[in-house]
Write a structure and sequence with these properties.
By secondary structure, the chain is α+β, with helices and mostly antiparallel strands. The protein has 13 helices and ten strands. α1 crosses α4.
């Protein structure tokens, strides 16, 4: 992203006031409103001139038929990077978030579902959670289960209670004892490795394994096609994305018109696209914030995504919220950060 133009102290004050006003009211901010609400110690005319300068620099724009101005994506970026006060979560919000995420079930799917719902309610945005990437998951054992004469189910038991299942189509009928024989080989040679290590070296690790009869044929299938099986095991699907209540977003003024509501519904009905955007964002310690056009995807131009990674063992996933670029950033950042810590503690 290009370096934003430098701001004077007055421009920074006025820009912060405009953003705060617009976030709170969803109405374009006029100079008199800023002068009256924020007590900047200068006249409305001076504020108006400063707002004009900010517009020329790309931080504000005039909506049509409005005398006020609205922040641009660039304005929000400067705001979260250099103007925003340190986020502090309120005690009451800590309690509510902790109660919402905690629960009887400690399965990660349940925890993520509760976290997405709770974050959505507390921020009035769309809570979102992404299950962990399994490349770094350690394989504990492999089990082969016959489903039909020409079909097997390979179950991968991973660390932390995760499991992945892969269907294997067989070109010939394999005897039950051959399935047992071949099933022992990956347990002996692949157990304790990460799925990434297995994918990268599977053929080498299995190529000198010995078997006879149909067991040899099944083993050869693993040598030739096993990399694809384990690739499928690490490929996340739509079910790995957990969304909170879309209705919370629908209440924002940004989605009051029929066209904007249709865009919102289309957006939330494609979880695979949401998962893809979340995974393509560069992870960093703490909070990651992507605003509007920064996503590089026109479907997300109207949205800000605020996320943090949660960790357990060698695995990590994402928790956060999606909302319009007009967002109470300080509150959202504090809640997302706290949610990531709570999830990590629970896991």
């Amino acid at each position: 992203m290009p370096t934003p133009p430098e701001l004077t102290d007055r421009e920074r004050q006025v820009l912060e006031a405009v953003i705060q006003s617009y976030v709170e009211t969803a109405e374009p901010a006029a100079s008199r409103t800023i002068s009256r609400r924020f007590g900047l110690g200068v006249s409305p005319a001076t504020i108006r001139n400063t707002m004009s300068d900010l517009e020329e620099k790309g931080f504000l724009f005039h909506p049509h038929t409005s005398a006020g101005r609205v922040p641009t994506d660039l304005a929000y970026r400067v705001y979260v990077d250099s103007l925003l006060q340190s986020p502090v979560i309120k005690t009451a919000e800590q309690v509510l978030l902790g109660e919402g995420i905690g629960g009887a079930s400690t399965a990660i799917e349940s925890i993520l579902r509760r976290a997405a719902q709770s974050l959505g309610v507390l921020t009035q945005e769309l809570g979102v959670a992404l299950g962990p990437q399994l490349d770094a998951a350690i394989l504990q054992r492999v089990e082969l289960v016959r489903l039909a004469s020409d079909r097997l189910l390979m179950v991968l038991a991973l660390e932390r209670g995760f499991a992945r299942s892969i269907y294997i189509e067989l070109p010939i009928e394999i005897a039950d004892d051959a399935i047992g024989t071949v099933g022992a080989v990956p347990n002996e040679r692949l157990g304790g490795l990460t799925l990434f290590e297995i994918r990268s070296s599977l053929a080498i690790r299995l190529r000198d394994a010995e078997a006879a009869g149909t067991a040899a044929e099944l083993l050869n299938i693993f040598v030739e096609e096993g990399e694809q099986y384990f690739t499928n095991a690490t490929r996340s699907d739509d079910a790995a994305v957990v969304l909170g209540q879309t209705s919370l977003l629908a209440e924002h003024p940004e989605f009051a018109t029929g066209d904007s509501m249709r865009q919102l519904l289309a957006f939330t009905e494609t979880p695979a696209h949401i998962a893809d955007v979340l995974r393509r964002r560069s992870p960093q310690p703490g909070i990651t914030i992507t605003i509007g056009h920064e996503h590089g995807d026109p479907r997300f131009d109207r949205f800000t995504i605020v996320t943090a990674e949660y960790h357990f063992g060698s695995l990590s996933g994402v928790i956060g919220v999606i909302g319009p670029t007009r967002m109470p950033y300080r509150k959202v950042i504090s809640l997302v950060g706290h949610a990531s810590r709570l999830i990590s503690d629970l896991l």
